[in-house]
Specification:
alpha+beta, 3-stranded mixed β-sheet, 3 helices
């Protein structure tokens, strides 16, 4: 999945009628455990989107971001 997919997911949750009517509350945070290569690709995309320079040696590290008030936490599964 790409960054846009996570943003679209949170946006669609926030726009659900059940959320707008107060029947469902969007969680304050969500955790995702990704396969290592997907984690690294997503981490790189987030850094570049924020205008940073990705360091290949740090892309495996856990990271988080906030979308519409929901904190998304990312870690990778598998070996280093």
């Amino acid at each position: 999945m790409r960054l846009k997919d996570y943003i679209d997911f949170i946006t669609s949750l926030a726009e659900m009628d059940e959320v707008k009517e107060g029947k469902f509350i969007v969680p304050a945070s969500m955790e995702f455990n990704l396969e290592r290569r997907f984690h690294k690709n997503l981490h790189k995309e987030v850094i570049v989107t924020k205008g940073g320079e990705p360091n290949p040696d740090e892309l495996h590290e856990p990271f988080d971001m906030v979308v519409l008030g929901v904190e998304l936490k990312f870690e990778h599964v598998g070996y280093e």
